[in-house]
Design a protein that fits this description.
The protein is of the alpha+beta class. Helices cover 46% and strands 19% of the residues. A hairpin with a 2-residue loop joins strand 3 and strand 4.
Length: 302
Amino acid sequence: MMKNYYKYLPVTQTEKDWGFYVMTVGCTHVNPKEQYPIKGHPKTHAFTWNKGRILNGYYIVFISHGKGEFESALTAPQKVSEGTCFLLFPEVWHRYKPDVDTGWEEYWVGFNGTYPDDMMNKYFFNPHNPFIYTGLNEPLLLLFRRLMETVQNASFGYHQIISGITLEMLGLIHMTSIDKRGSEDPDLQLIQKAMFLIRESLEEPLNMQRLIQQLPMGYSKFRVLFKSTTGYSPHQYHLALRMDKAKELLQTTELNVNEIAYQTGFDSGFYFSMFFKKKTGLSPSDYRFRKRTTKDYLMEEE
């Protein structure tokens, strides 16, 4: 289960001059019968179902679990299922909420600027039909996670980096809206859902029984299809993702070995170090040193 996180970002003149700036990012898990929206959002973004709200910017909202409903001044009330993105548009009244019996999980990013204005004015996205069914799209989940991690790290120049990630997200959503091949193959949909669920539970041991319960497919067929699609068994795929994440954290953060082990689902720093060295031939600290030394050398050469 994902952890609730949200951040509202200051927007300076530099961000506005860039032409594309992000105002907020976040994710929320809403349990059945839980109050929605959760408390803590600023007044500019808080709303109730009865009143709805109007925002000054564009927003992508992605529902990764559960279901609910959406309505806007330009859109009749509509049910929203998992795997659906919907867009919010500036100065358009809207409201949405999870189903009281299921709750939902949502990811979002809010953005604005002259560049998205130009994109929307060319009707790449339609405010009268703001729904795009992406399915449980693993690349989309990865982009949302990159977005939130970049904001959390807040390194120099990150505002421009997150605008690029958001633009990549818009490109992915747009291509999904016009390419229907994946949605016509039910087996591929299930494998994509499994890939999504495995990445979403990256920090936890892979529970194969729980995973299969979420897919109307027998284990033998699932394992064959998964390996033919990804080149890995489900367990190998999960371990590969954890290793990729560990390498990224070693290169881009100052987290110690125990912290990285925790964030990648290993039982201890000791076990993580043994596994990492077995797979790469280097201890985590040696890997970090070598990658950073190489990076510094390349920067000096430039």
